[in-house]
């Protein structure tokens, strides 16, 4: 699994559209950063949507750790898992569900149905 796929699957598991998550990111930005004069919430939301789409591009990796830390403030995922997927060779990747991207590092650690699927995504354990 790639880091970008991990973010996309975590967003989908949280039942958030790209637009919903971009709005959350924009609201966080507005509440924590100094804005340039003239920036509207719509402008910031559009910028966050472009950023999110860039992060979710196949094979993409965020350039700045702060971007991923900020994203984690509005989307439930594990920053350490993201960076392991982004920086480590595949044989050092953590176990991550291919359906929802949950991992053993989550607060609600999954019960595994198969080697690559948690019980929520594959309750029968048949490998979907």
Written description of the protein model:
- This protein is mostly helical and 128 residues long.
- Helices cover 45% and strands 0% of the residues.
- It contains five helices and no strands.
- It has helices at residues 3-13, 18-32, 41-55, 65-72, 79-87.
- The radius of gyration is 16 Å and the shape is elongated.
- The model has no long low-confidence stretch (mean pLDDT 89).
Q: Topology, please?
A:
Blueprint: H1 3-13, H2 18-32, H3 41-55, H4 65-72, H5 79-87
The averaged pLDDT comes out at: 89
Contiguous helical run count: 5
State the end-to-end distance: 17 Å
The string of secondary-structure elements, in order, is HHHHH
Main beta sheet, described? none
User: Which structural class is indicated by helix and strand composition?
Assistant: mainly alpha
Shape: elongated
Question: Which residue ranges are poorly predicted, with pLDDT under 50 across at least 5 consecutive positions?
Answer: none
Strands, total number: 0
Strand content: under 5%
The percent range for helix content is 40-55%
User: Compute the gyration radius: what is it?
Assistant: 16 Å
Concise description?
With 128 residues, the chain is an all-alpha fold.
Labels describing this entry:
mainly alpha, single chain, 0% strand, elongated, 5 helices, 128 residues
């Amino acid at each position: 699994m790639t880091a970008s796929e991990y973010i996309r699957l975590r967003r989908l598991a949280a039942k958030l559209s790209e637009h919903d998550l971009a709005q959350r990111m924009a609201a966080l930005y507005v509440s924590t950063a100094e804005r340039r004069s003239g920036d509207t919430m719509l402008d910031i939301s559009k910028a966050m949507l472009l950023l999110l789409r860039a992060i979710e591009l196949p094979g993409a990796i965020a350039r700045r750790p702060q971007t991923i830390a900020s994203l984690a403030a509005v989307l439930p995922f594990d920053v350490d898992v993201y960076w392991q997927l982004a920086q480590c060779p595949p044989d050092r990747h953590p176990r991550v569900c291919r359906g929802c991207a949950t991992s053993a590092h989550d607060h609600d650690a999954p019960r595994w149905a198969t080697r690559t699927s948690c019980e929520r995504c594959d309750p029968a354990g048949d490998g979907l």
